Amino acid sequence: MSTDGLPAAPTVPETGPSETEGDWSDRLFGGFRRTSERLTGNLSGIVGGGRLDSAQLDALEDALIMSDLGPRAAARIRDRLAEERFERGADERAIMEVVAREIAEILRPVAKPLDVVAFPRPQVVLVIGVNGSGKTTTIAKLAHLFQEQDYSVMLAAGDTFRAAAIGQLAVWADRLSIPIVRGPEGGDPASVVFDAVKAATDQGIDALIVDTAGRLQNKRELMDELAKIHRVLGRLNPEAPHDVVLVLDATNGQNALSQIEIFKEVAGVSGLIMTKLDGTARGGVLVAAAEQYGLPIHAIGVGEKIDDLRPFNPDLLARVIAGIA
């Protein structure tokens, strides 16, 4: 292990056969195992006849809330269950099938991969998130995802507040063989972004991914910093930034929702990426975020490898969360 907390050996996979849809499905089921076990555990023992009564529906709603799906999604699923006529009785499997269908309805409108569509290039993607959310590693994974789609990528180390963030991003840029623009620790982030956009434009880069400061201790300071970056970008390209992506750590559960609220105010978030879903039983917060905010969820992270960040199929993911093979 290196001193910056990254593996000493490169984790970028060698070229070879691409992962199949089945492989990704297996990894999703493995990654969400703790979440699905928590949900099914909370719902176990709730069974009924052709229709569920009020007491059973109350118990189901409470179980969904305890599974981090949030009160809005839980109320919506409860209403759907109340309408359902279970011809063979409401056993656990029948209930989970309905839960999975309703979760899919919640996730479908927000399952939107991050597409590189800007013209003129580059597409500028600001990535924000609190320190410790996995933001820097997620930037590397997103860059790799773009590379897999044959897009050229550049990184900009706009989190000048932390030398470790600059160094970490530089390590990933080297491993992925992509250019990076950085400045000194404590330097002006807007200057770094300005230089990066000019360099990306000159080099014909498709996507420029910009790291930004993740401190929330002083919201006004962060808001001013991001506003300055927006102004600088606007001078170079009125459409930039094209995306403002918030990285969320799923292990924070419902606290992740408060981060969405804050960063929407501070930074004008346009989409979400949720990480560390494989290390928590609180993956239901993905559903809560979708139902409460309706922001695009561009990708999810279910592991530490470079290719463990992917867009998701909402129908498959709903069944994964519900623990239905």
TrEMBL record:
Coiled coil: none
Region (Disordered): 1-27
Membrane topology: Peripheral membrane protein
Record-annotated SRP54-type proteins GTP-binding domain positions: 122-323
Annotated ranges, domain AAA+ ATPase: 121-268
Chain positions recorded as GTP binding sites: 129-136, 211-215, 275-278
Major site of localization recorded for this protein: membrane
GO cellular component: cytoplasm; plasma membrane
EC number: 3.6.5.4
UniProt entry keywords in alphabetical sequence: Cell membrane, Cytoplasm, GTP-binding, Hydrolase, Membrane, Nucleotide-binding, Receptor
Subcellular location as annotated: Cell inner membrane; Cell membrane; Cytoplasm
Residues in Signal recognition particle SRP54 helical bundle domain copies: 28-107
Stated role: Involved in targeting and insertion of nascent membrane proteins into the cytoplasmic membrane. Acts as a receptor for the complex formed by the signal recognition particle (SRP) and the ribosome-nascent chain (RNC). Interaction with SRP-RNC leads to the transfer of the RNC complex to the Sec translocase for insertion into the membrane, the hydrolysis of GTP by both Ffh and FtsY, and the dissociation of the SRP-FtsY complex into the individual components.
Name of the protein in its database record: Signal recognition particle receptor FtsY
Species assigned in the record: Novosphingobium colocasiae
Gene: ftsY
